[in-house]
Amino acid sequence: MQSISRRLQKINYSQTLAMSAKTRALKAKGLDVISLNIGEPDFSPPSYILEAAKKAVDQGHHYYTPVSGSLELREAVCEKFLRDNLLHYNPSQIVVSAGSKQSISNLFLSLLNPGDKVIIPSPFWVSYYEMVNLCEALPVIIHTSISTDFKITPEQLEEAITPDVKIFIFSSPCNPTGSVYSSEELKCLTKVFVKHPDVIIISDEIYEYINYSEKYTSIGSFPDVYEQTVTLNGISKTFAMTGWRIGFIGAPLWIAKTCEKVQGQTSSGTNSIAQQAAIIALKSHPNRIAYMIEAFRKRRDLVLDMMKEIPGFKSNEPVGSFYIFPNIAEIFGNTFLGVKISNAYDLSMFLLEKAQVATVAGSSFGAESNLRISYASSEETLKEAFKRIKRMLL
Ligand code: GLU
Hints:
Its cofactor is pyridoxal 5'-phosphate. It comes from Candidatus Uzinura diaspidicola str. ASNER. Belongs to the class-I pyridoxal-phosphate-dependent aminotransferase family. Its EC number is 2.6.1.-. By secondary structure, the protein is of the alpha/beta class. The chain has two domains: 6-44 and 289-393, Aspartate Aminotransferase, domain 1, CATH 3.90.1150.10; 61-285, Aspartate Aminotransferase, domain 2, CATH 3.40.640. The chain is 41% helix and 14% strand. It has helices spanning 6-9, 15-28, 47-59, 71-85, 100-111, 126-134, 154-160, 183-193, 223-226, 253-266, 272-283, 290-308, 344-355, 379-393; strands at residues 34-35, 94-97, 117-122, 138-143, 165-171, 200-204, 229-234, 247-250, 323-324, 335-336, 339-340, 357-358, 360-361, 371-374. Strands 2-8-7-6-5-3-4 form a seven-stranded mixed β-sheet, with helices on both faces. The structure holds glutamic acid (GLU). Glutamic acid is lined by residues 14, 16-17, 38-39, 101, 125-127, 175.
């Protein structure tokens, strides 16, 4: 009998991408939908990066690169890690992939056996959970709430680590909560990890630059945990290049090698022109994209202000990424325009259908009572979106 694999039967569609598909379909029908669902900057990539890509076409970069990425790019990644994160890697410890999403799937495929456990603090990015399931491993969720700014404590971590835990994965700045772990908070977590050197820490730093708090710290920069840490980053969010699909890891050599092995059998590596552009992006000083970060910060403030006017939306103050993740449980049970809202999915669908504002329900991020709103859109768009939301809910 023809059927999909048992492995796949257990996993859900990516809700971030499913909402994008719905939004696209409605827009194609001529509806004026505002997309606050996807994590995608509305800026154009910087022109000096685009120029590098055009030059790469003219120079004939049309062929396979090494599976892990061109040497020049891996050297640029090493420079970036040293400049921004005080992380010493050499090019053989770097694997460049088709977005950091592929980096994560390489890692999970390389490291997980069925039944292994992966600790994921919740709320989490949708695909961590599903990719763990895809590998027939078991997610172990550490729950957090607004009261702790959605951050885990060392005690929670210690309690979650059991002998069959193989990986701990988290994002800071966090998608979807916008929380950023301080250097001190990370240091406290490292004290737990050093007691468990077999647990591999995957530090997802894709929103590193989109950080309005103190200077950014990478957990791998603490020498005690360097050998058990994989640092994950990419150019999608920082340089507004989501479609170019460049993500990368810096990892202990044995992990880099095994990711290269997986990638060699699955994709042969990522796009050669995009790799040339990424070299220029990573070599450029972060100051050059400071205008985008400042715009995100202003939008964050605007959204927080506008949200105060909507009863029942309660949020932390996000200090990074470009999401806000209000708890909306207070409105559950209420009826608006004849539609009863019983959960976050109902609200997300209601806002899409009635206000034509696309968001993502928190359930796929491990938080049933929350709604994810991306503010990677212009202030004008955000104002219009909140005007519509307010009109529906007041
Ligand atoms: N990471 C972005 C988001 O959360 C892009 C979509 C995805 O890959 O999930 O919206």
